Amino acid sequence: MTTATTSTGPAIDQSLQHVYAEVLRRNPGEHEFHQAVEEVLASLGPVVRRHPHYLAERVIERLCEPERQIIFRVPWTDDAGQVQINRGFRVEYSSVLGPYKGGLRFHPSVLLGTVKFLGFEQIFKNALTGLPIGGGKGGSDFDPKGRSDAEVMRFCQSFMTELYRHLGEYTDVPAGDIGVGGREIGYLFGQYKRITNRYEAGVLTGKGLAWGGSRARKEATGYGTVYFANEMARHAGLSLAGHDVVVSGSGNVAIYAIEKVTELGGRVVACSDSSGYVVDERGIDLDLLKDIKEVRRERIGQYAKERTSARFVDRGCIWDVPCEIALPCATQNELDEEAATTLVKNGLDIVAEGANMPCTPGAVRVFQEAGVLFGPGKAVNAGGVATSALEMQQNASRDTWTFEYTDNRLAAIMHNIHERVVSTAEDYGRPGDYVFGANASGFTAVADAMLAMGVI
Ligand code: GLU
Question: Which CATH code fits 218-380?
Answer without folding.
Answer: 3.40.50.720
